[in-house]
Amino acid sequence: MEEKEELKVSKIAEGTVIDHIRAGRAPLVLKILGIEAGFPDSVIVAMNVRSTRYGKKDIVKVEGQFLDEEKINKIALISPQATINIIRSYKVVKKDQVELPKRLVGIVKCPNRNCITNSPEGVETIFHTEASAGGPRLRCHYCEESVELAEVELL
Ligand code: CTP
Ligand code: ZN
C-alpha cells in the first residue's frame, strides 16, 4: 500500500460537526455560531483541508453545542454544500445537508437603503429564495430588490 500523508483532526464526544464548509469560510461559520474571544467550550477549526468531494473544504467542530434553525439557515446561505453532523458519545447520530429555505425571516439585510426594513421603524426583513441561471437569488418581500447569494449581508 502506498503511504499517504493525512491530516488527522480530533473527533469530538458530544456536539456538532459542520463539515464540507466552502474552503476559507470557517471564520464566517464561527461568527454565525457566536464564537469569539472568551468562548468557553472546545472548538476545532480546519481550513483548506483536502476533501475527496470538493477539492478543499473547511470544518468546524463544536463540543457541547447543537444549532438552532436560524444558525443552520445562515450556514446554508454562506456554504450551501455544508453538512451538519450531530455527535453523541463519539458517534454521528444525525447527518443533514443544509438547505436554503424558501423564506428567510430576520436573517438577511436588504441592500436597498430606502427599503422599509432599513427604516427606523425596524420592520423585520423577509426574503424569498428564487432560482436563476446564475444560481439562487434572494428577493426582498417589501422592496423586491434581488440579491445574489454571494453578496448577501447577514444580520
Ligand atoms: N466526527 C467527529 N467526531 C466524531 C465523529 C465524527 O469530529 N466523534 C467528524 C468526522 O471527522 C467528519 C464528520 O464528523 O468530519 C462526519 O463524520 P462521518 O460521517 O463519520 O464521516 P464521513 O462519512 O466522511 O462524512 P461525509 O460522508 O459527510 O463526508
Ligand atoms: Zn428591501
Short précis:
The chain has two helices and nine strands, in the order βαββαββββββ. With 155 residues, the chain is mostly beta strands.
Average of pLDDT:
92
CATH fold description of the largest domain: Alpha-Beta Plaits
CATH architecture descriptor of the largest domain: 2-Layer Sandwich
For the biggest β-sheet, the strand order reads 2-3-1-4-5
Q: Please give the radius of gyration in angstroms.
A: 18 Å
Domains counted in the coordinates: how many? Answer: 2
Give the CA-CA distance, first to last residue.
50 Å
Report the bound ligands by name, code or SMILES.
Answer: cytidine-5'-triphosphate, zinc ion
CATH class of the largest domain: Alpha Beta
**Can you tell me the residue ranges where pLDDT is under 50 for at least 5 consecutive residues?**
none
- H/E order of the elements? EHEEHEEEEEE
Sheet of most strands: 5 strands, antiparallel
Secondary structure: number of strands: 9
- Based on Cα principal axes, name the global outline: globular
Category by helix and strand content: mainly beta
Report the CATH superfamily of the largest domain: Aspartate carbamoyltransferase regulatory subunit, N-terminal domain
Q: Please, how many helices?
A: 2
- Strand percentage, roughly? 25-35%
**Helix percent band:** 10-25%
